[in-house]
Request: fold
Amino acid sequence: MSDTNVSPISANSANPAGSGTAPSPVLATTNLHKSYRVGNSTLHVLRGVEMELHTGQVTALMGSSGSGKSTLLQLLGLMDSCNQGQILLRGRCIHNLRAGAAAKVRAQELGFVFQQFQLIQELSALENVLLPRRIARGLSWFSNRGQERLRANAVLKEVGLGDRCRHRPHQLSGGEQQRVAIARALVSSPPVLLADEPTGNLDRQTGNDVLDLLLNLARTRGTAMLLATHDKQIAARCDRILHLEDGQLQ
Ligand code: ADP
Ligand code: MG
Reply:
């Protein structure tokens, strides 16, 4: 399936200049439901999530363990599919894309940072960061390799790892691995960044440094970031807080 199958809902996510209307959300969900079937029982995790993320805004997603934060982020990141509802990215439906088109959207328009880094152990830091670019480029990758390597190098420098490009994940500290993962999430300059407990696997000081970096990068780039956390201190540093409770956002 090609990108052309991304169905337009509104022609343009940006508002006409001077129209005076509220800006369109960069990412929005309507009536999002997700349930898991385990044996004979069904677990309804998300029960009609309504959410809007805006450019330049960092949103904390709070909720107790098991409330469905990761489930919601995985749906938004197109790593799983919903049972009902819609996900709109810049006004286009993305919840029903086939695998190939979803992979392209993920590589170009969505960045994802996981609690457990999820780097590929066999690849260097630079090669890990290049992965979304390879997927985004498709066949044109081969004629653009040099340019893409420069781009990945620049993002690694931005996260403070200019001198660690050739290191494999096991040759890096936890904080450094998460920085590589942040560089991978941002290498395509996506409008949306999804971060699932990104400091949950790090000690307090390293976690604070990584959080500072994430907030800085999101704010200077104008990225809409949704950050799942159960930590009130982390949530307090975001621009607004959403609470997931009984499968809905409060
Ligand atoms: P949180 O991230 O808020 O801790 P999760 O989204 O990971 O919560 O999980 C929400 C609920 O869904 C939990 O009760 C969990 O056990 C269940 N769950 C998550 N993933 C699956 C799955 N793949 N199959 C069945 N149940 C799942
Ligand atoms: Mg979780």
Notes: The CA atoms of residues 36 and 167 lie 39 Å apart. The chain has one domain: 8-16+51-80+98-249. The radius of gyration is 18 Å. Confidence is low (pLDDT under 50) at residues 1-18.
